[in-house]
Specification:
Blueprint (H helix, E strand, L loop, with lengths): L1 H24 L6 E5 L5 E5 L1 E8 L2 E6 L11 E6 L6 E7 L11 E8 L8 E6 L1
Antiparallel strand pairs: 1-2, 1-8, 3-4, 4-7, 5-8, 6-7
Length: 127
């Protein structure tokens, strides 16, 4: 019985560790995708050169040159994880807030319900 419980616990731990990669694998046709952690570091990603946090609740995602932002493009930022209070994410394309080529950057802003900036983890997908 203890062996079965250990195997089940190990499988659950493996699924938890692998969830970001699985989430990115579900978007095979996306031009770019990434998990961005609350400190701005990058988790599993596709066609993302760099991610960083500029200030509380404000992040920059630098895309590789192969990502085309011209024309109709869908950009989605989705919370990763659970937060006890509501959060709002917004994206800004081509911002000069980021220190790189502003045509290949996306800024993501996170706020709580009363408009105060808050750090969060999120998935960003560019289709």
């Amino acid at each position: 019985m203890k062996t079965m419980m250990r195997i089940a616990a190990g499988a659950l731990a493996a699924a938890t560790v692998m969830s970001p990669a699985v989430a990115l694998a579900d978007a095979p046709y996306a031009q770019a995708a990434a998990l961005v952690r609350p400190d701005g570091s990058r988790g599993p990603s596709k066609n993302i050169l760099r991610t960083f946090r500029t200030s509380t609740g404000n992040y920059c995602v630098v895309l590789s040159d192969g990502v085309n932002l011209d024309g109709p493009v869908a950009i989605q930022a989705t919370l990763a994880g659970h937060y006890p209070f509501p959060r709002t994410l917004s994206v800004e394309v081509g911002t000069q807030q980021c220190e790189h080529d502003h045509f290949q950057t996306i800024a993501v802003h996170s706020q709580n319900a009363v408009g105060e900036p808050r750090d969060v983890a999120f998935y960003l997908t560019v289709s």
